[in-house]
Automatic annotation (TrEMBL):
InterPro entries membership: Glyco_trans_1 (IPR001296), Glyco_trans_4-like_N (IPR028098)
Molecular-function annotations in GO: glycosyltransferase activity
Pfam families according to UniProt: Glyco_transf_4, Glycos_transf_1
Keywords from the UniProt entry: Glycosyltransferase, Transferase
Domain of life: Bacteria
Domain Glycosyltransferase subfamily 4-like N-terminal: 164-285
Protein name per the record: D-inositol 3-phosphate glycosyltransferase
Organism expressing this protein natively: Streptomyces galilaeus
Region annotated Disordered, chain positions: 502-529
Length: 529
């Protein structure tokens, strides 16, 4: 398996590796090391290897050029601008000292500063130079922003030129940093000589495809599985080259896949259209683990009591939110809604294990203080992913207030399934896939995204009659399919189809029973990376 991160914070990748190994596959999971050394450990029977990824190509060629071609007034670099600003400040500080020394009483010679008359011209020159340097420094900042965003008419024309002239190969000019992934992982994959490569998300698709092609050229019939986590055209664009470059990278390499996996039927349809896939991708949901392995729960504290951590009793209305905090997650809607619901508390399970809050948390704290609701908002640390449903289960309802973004519209998030396994009534914004599911099952209320009034209406409806919404969970098949154990069966069937000779288990694995021993060759012990 391949992933473009450090593995530890990617629950889907961890679950995929562990469950594949449990099914009998020999799994090596490659990720990115944050050091210059290879790091290794195990997730169950799967081996993790983090390899260093130098990034010299992440510095775009434009950043190596001077800025003056974008603005005649700009300095050739930000470093030069900073140097000149500090140099002028030092000059003016020295002139202030000399003026003071010319008139100061006490030890020293007044002449050390020169006479006031002698400083008139230097002061004027320093002031004029300061204004000139300031003007050029502002021009430098503007030029750097333009260079970073690639949003000028010339930049856009260049992007279009490469798209038209290179087509799917345009990423080589638009985003050469993608070569850094190829160069970091290629030798490790080639040495392993896997039978199957499972590439997670779009960056690793290219790395996996190129490795598969090289191995196939040597006569090894390696299979490639692409696990598409996101809809690339709908991602946040860091600059004007980001989306077209990654779309080209994905298009060039998608054709080498033997099977495609994704997170929702909606995204599967878009992938078929966007890449002219011959088969509809398999759907493996981001569902929670309900039967954690013994090594996962070893030395882990019991699931804490949510209400105890909040310091409230069972009669106090409590809304739960679990996940990261950023401007498009909609947490501010929950906080603003508290003004109109004076008896309601909110638990934000949003503090990473490191203890360092998400950058956007500071703005949420400011909003909490501004509205005076700090006594009813409780920011709590994450718990292990298998504890989330039990941890949240004592809340009265769970909230998913996402804003409208392309990728939000296309999939059911981790938190949706975790909330459902906690059997909580849901209050969700009207992003398409989640809203349609909630309306179909009757497990909650839908509100207009970023509309505080409508959010408050939805919350009050759920709190007024929670049993009406909990009734949806009485359907045993609903929650049974929303578990990782059920999704692992799908994953094993995909591997088995591509590498015949093993049968998928008939039902999710019961961890209360001893694990089966590996069978003979052809019964599931082929190598997968």
């Amino acid at each position: 398996m391949l992933v473009d991160n450090g593995v530890r914070n990617d629950s889907r990748v961890q679950k995929s590796a562990r469950s594949a190994a449990e099914a009998g596959w020999d799994v090596i999971l490659f990720g990115i090391s944050n050091t210059r050394e290879i790091q290794s450990w195990n997730i169950g029977e799967a081996e993790v290897r983090l390899v260093p990824k130098p990034s010299p190509l992440s510095h775009r060629r434009q950043e190596m050029k001077g800025l003056r071609y974008r603005s005649p007034l700009a300095y050739r670099s930000s470093d030069v601008a900073s140097f000149r600003k500090q140099q002028v400040k030092a000059w003016r500080a020295d002139l202030r000292f000399r003026a003071a020394a010319a008139t100061a009483d006490g030890p020293g010679k007044p002449s050390a500063g020169g006479s006031p008359a002698r400083l008139v011209l230097p002061k004027a020159a320093a002031k004029a130079t300061s204004k000139w340097v300031g003007l050029r420094s502002r021009a430098t900042r503007r030029a750097k922003r333009k260079r970073t965003k690639f949003d000028t008419p010339l930049d856009k024309a260049i992007i279009k030129f490469w798209q038209v002239s290179k087509g799917e190969r345009a990423w080589r000019k638009l985003l050469p940093y993608l070569w850094d992934y190829e160069l970091a992982f290629a030798k490790h994959i080639d040495e392993l000589e896997p039978d199957l490569i499972h590439a997670h998300d779009f960056r690793m698709l290219g790395v996996g495809a190129r490795a598969a092609v090289r191995l196939r050229a040597t006569g090894r019939p390696v299979k490639l599985v692409w696990d598409a986590h996101e809809f690339v055209p709908g991602l946040h664009s860091h600059h004007e080259r980001w989306i077209p470059g990654h779309v080209a990278w994905e298009k060039e390499h998608a054709v080498f896949s033997d099977a495609v996996i994704t997170v929702s039927p909606s995204l599967a349809e878009l992938l078929v259209k966007g890449h002219k896939l011959k088969e509809t991708p398999y759907v493996v949901l981001n569902a929670p683990v309900m039967q954690p392995a013994p090594d996962e729960v070893a030395d882990v504290d019991p699931t804490p009591d949510l209400r105890e951590l909040c310091g409230i009793d069972e009669d106090t209305p409590l809304l739960a939110y679990c996940g990261g905090i950023n401007p498009v997650r909609g947490v501010e809607t929950m906080i603003e809604g508290l003004v109109k619901m004076p008896d309601v508390h909110v638990a934000l399970v949003s503090l990473p294990p490191s203890g360092k809050p998400f950058p956007a948390t500071a703005k949420i704290i400011e909003l909490i203080e501004e509205l005076g609701v700090g006594d009813r908002v409780h920011v709590l640390p994450f718990v292990p992913h298998w504890q989330v449903p039990e941890f949240l289960s004592t809340a009265d309802a769970a909230v998913s207030p996402l804003h409208h973004l392309a990728n939000h519209e296309l999939a059911l998030s981790n938190k949706f399934f975790e909330y459902s396994q906690a059997r909580l009534p849901l209050v969700v914004s009207d992003i398409r896939t989640m809203a349609e599911m909630v309306e179909r099952t009757g497990q909650g209320e839908v509100f207009k995204a970023q509309d505080v009034e409508d959010y408050v209406r939805a919350v009050k409806a759920v709190l007024a009659n929670p049993d009406r919404y909990r009734k949806a969970y009485e359907d045993p098949e609903l929650l049974a399919q929303w578990t990782w154990e059920a999704q692992a069966v799908v994953l094993d069937k995909i591997y088995s189809r591509l590498l015949p000779g093993t049968e998928a288990p008939a039902a999710p694995k019961d961890r209360s029973r001893p694990a089966p021993t590996a069978g003979p060759e052809g019964s599931g012990n082929e190598s997968t990376v």
